[in-house]
Structure formats: structure tokens, C-alpha cells
Amino acid sequence: MQKPNKTLNACILYIAALSGVGYSSGQEIRIFFVRYGRFGLVTLSAVPIILFSVSLIFILTSRKKALSGACSIFIPDKHKYVEEFVNSVIFLVMVLGVVLPTWHFGYKAHIGVDKDSGVVHTVKATAANVHDVSETSKLLTGEEAVVYGDSGYLGAGKREDAIVRNKSGHKIRYKINRRPSQVKKLSKSGRYAAKKAEHAKSSIRAKVEHVFGVVKKQLRFRKTRYRGLEKQQAKFNIMFALANLILADRPCLAA
């Protein structure tokens, strides 16, 4: 009776290792499967059974081979079931490394910055493939009179979800930078006037780049370590809150 108990403990440890190494959390797995409705709930119930069965098969069928020599250095001989478990994990990692593709993931931080103080008032985390203009309405507080943005936000004021009027009832003006290719098509005198107008827009819009400069250079936040929008949103909130503290401590804002 003791050997099945050891095998069961090893299976549970094996399943816990798969979740603990950071592939995904239990909450992310639940959210992923629940999106598929009834089929997702059935699959979610079947996943632990499948993991348990695979773990049991690996442990019961594992034998002392070349890989066991590496494990015996760290594991005493009396703990044979642990050695079999480690052999199974090593074998599974080798199979996953060869069979499964390498997944790349990334996130994007969309922020709204006050043009007077230069501090961030809104942060939104999305996947890296989400376009900037689609998040414009979520970055506004409703008190803006003028909205500035780079060429990635062209057409923001004409979208269906665009905020046209602020809370005071006044119309919001969208001053978005043109693309350089649009300026080149103008006449010589037109290009001069357009460049002057674009420079005026950029001088205000650059407040956003100052924030990212603090986050990337001073706080050294350039790569994400988490998977999942909720985790990334929490990380963004912390980093940009720290950036606000640094920016608010500037001499020009001391008064």
C-alpha cells in the first residue's frame, strides 16, 4: 500500500510543478476555458484527470536509464520514487523542448498624461497587437479640452467610440500629428507651415515620451516577466505610479 501512496504523491507533485514553473496560473486556466461555455467547463474538468493520468503513466513506465545517473547525484538511493519522478520531468521537458514551438508574447502600455503636470492619469495594458487608436477613448478622463497624440492616433476623433464632448459639454479638439509622408506631399510653403504646426503639437505630446523615458531608463522596466493582462496591468500601475513620483519631484513642480 505504501508504493501507490508514494506514486500518488509524486503525481500530485508533478502536476504542481507544471503550474509552479510559470506556464500559467489556475486563474488564467479557468478564464481561458470558461470563455468556451459548456465545452470549456467540461474541458476544464477533464484537464486535472488528463494531467494525473499522464503523470501516472510517466512515473510507472520510467526506468533507470542514462538520465537516472544525473538524478542519483542529488537524490539518495532510498528515495527511488523521487528519482523516477525527476526522470519523468526531465524526459517531459526534453519532449516539450523538441516538439512544441517557442511562443513569443508581448504587451503594450497605453497611457494618458496631463499636459500641464506631465504625470500619468490613466494606464491601460493590452496585447502588443492592439492598435493605439482603438484605446483612445479609454485613456480620457472626460475633462479634456484638447487631445494630443502621434500619428498612430490618426482618426481617433472620428471613431464610433470616440469621446466628442467633455463633461462640461464643450467639444474636444483632437490635435494628432500627421504622418511625414502626408507633409511631403504639400507644397514648399505648405510644408513649412505644416512642420511648424507639427512641432507645436509634438512639443506637448512629448510629455508622454518623458514618462516612458523614466520607466525604461531610470526604473529599467523594458521587458515583461508576467503572462496575463491582469498581472501586466498591475505591473504597469506600479511602474507608472513610481514614474509619477519621480516626475512630480522635479524642481519645476516643487512650487
Structural features:
two-stranded antiparallel ribbon, 255 residues, elongated, 53% helix, two-stranded parallel ribbon, mainly alpha
Outline the fold blueprint.
Layout: H1 2-20, H2 26-34, H3 37-61, H4 66-72, H5 80-99, E1 107-113, E2 120-127, E3 146-149, E4 173-176, H6 180-184, H7 188-218, H8 229-248
Parallel strand pairs: 3-4
Antiparallel strand pairs: 1-2
Describe the structure.
This protein has 255 residues and is mostly helical. The chain has 8 helices and 4 strands. The protein has helices spanning 2-20, 26-34, 37-61, 66-72, 80-99, 180-184, 188-218, 229-248; strands at residues 107-113, 120-127, 146-149, 173-176. A two-stranded antiparallel sheet has the order 1-2. Strand 1 and strand 2 (120-127) form a beta hairpin. Helix 7 crosses helix 8 (229-248).
Share of β-strand residues: 5-15%
Provide the helix percentage. 40-55%
What is the gyration radius calculated from CA atoms? 27 Å
Mean pLDDT: 75
**Secondary-structure element pattern, one letter each:** HHHHHEEEEHHH
Termini separation: 76 Å
Question: Order of strands across the biggest sheet?
Answer: 1-2
Please mark out the parts with pLDDT under 50 across 5 or more consecutive residues, or reply none.
63-78, 94-102
How does the overall form come out from the CA principal axes? elongated
Q: Helical segment tally?
A: 8
Oligomer: single chain
What is the number of beta strands? 4
Helix-and-strand structural type? mainly alpha
Give a quick account of the main beta sheet: strands, pairing sense, barrel closure: 2 strands, antiparallel
